[in-house]
């Protein structure tokens, strides 16, 4: 019996118009009524998924969320952290210097400070709007080397960010988890951080075994959790590389793929 279901949001839970179908809401509700823990696994901060958590009625003492691609696992109601794996201010300063060399825009999520950037740009504004959070303009000079930084992001037009990614030094990939979550978002996290680790740490907290876990996703930042789960499910619209490693392929996000998978394997 499966006891934990972790679901990616964009391209998975959410349809192309960013809504959740009634069938998917119903399947998630029925799974939770059976005692299954259902969690959102996202690159966003908790503020960016609060509306969805409210819509799914997942704001009780028994609900959790995997935010920042697994860097932070927390209770949705109290925001109490179950696990937190960050990088440091010195990493931000290093990556800031690299962003200048590559001529790309940068912002970071800094603990107790929120979304910080040297200058606002198109895709920092997109980030803020998606997550309903404020932007703090700061040149990073007031961030100390030992301050906790949840993640750093290079954000820019795909035709700028793509070539910049190709020019990243080898040491960057050795030091950090590097995730291209969208063509305009390139994320840098603690080397140990990925959604798979987040799922693993939550499962350990809940006393749930690996073979009792289902994960659903569509993109490269879902790879680790799909590989880790007892049943890793790729969406019909997933990257081919994700379909290749999945145990099962469901329908697309616009065809109730999440609902169909939960109905088949949980209900």
UniProtKB/TrEMBL annotation:
Keywords: Hydrolase. One of its GO terms (molecular function) is magnesium ion binding. Gene3D superfamilies: 3.30.1240.10, HAD superfamily/HAD-like. One of its GO terms (cellular component) is cytosol. PROSITE patterns: COF_2. The keyword Phosphoprotein does not apply. The keyword Hydrolase applies. This is HAD family hydrolase.
């Amino acid at each position: 019996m499966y006891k934990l279901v972790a679901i990616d949001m964009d391209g998975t839970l959410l349809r192309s118009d960013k809504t959740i179908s009634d069938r998917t809401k119903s399947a998630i509700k029925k799974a939770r009524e059976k005692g299954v823990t259902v969690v959102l696994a996202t690159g966003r901060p908790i503020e960016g998924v609060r509306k969805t958590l409210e819509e799914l009625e997942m704001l009780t003492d028994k609900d959790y969320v995997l935010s920042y691609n697994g860097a932070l696992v927390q209770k949705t109601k109290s925001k109490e952290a179950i696990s937190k794996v960050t990088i440091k201010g010195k990493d931000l300063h290093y990556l800031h210097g690299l962003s200048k060399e590559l001529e790309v825009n940068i912002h970071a999520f800094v603990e107790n400070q929120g979304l910080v950037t040297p200058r606002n740009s198109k895709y920092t504004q997109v980030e803020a709007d998606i997550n309903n959070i404020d932007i703090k303009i700061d040149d990073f000079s007031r961030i100390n080397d030992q301050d906790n930084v949840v993640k750093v992001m290079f954000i820019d037009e795909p035709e700028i960010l793509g070539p910049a990614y190709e020019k990243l030094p080898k040491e960057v990939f050795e030091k950090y988890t590097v995730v291209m979550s969208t063509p305009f978002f390139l994320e840098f996290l603690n080397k140990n951080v990925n959604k798979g680790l987040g799922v693993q740490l939550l499962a350990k907290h809940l006393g749930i075994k690996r073979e009792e876990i289902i994960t659903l996703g569509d993109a490269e930042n879902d790879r680790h959790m799909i590989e880790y789960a007892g049943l890793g499910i790729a969406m019909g619209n997933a990257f081919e590389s994700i379909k290749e490693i999945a145990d099962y392929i469901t329908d697309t996000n616009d065809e109730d793929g999440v609902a169909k998978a939960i109905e088949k394997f949980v209900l």
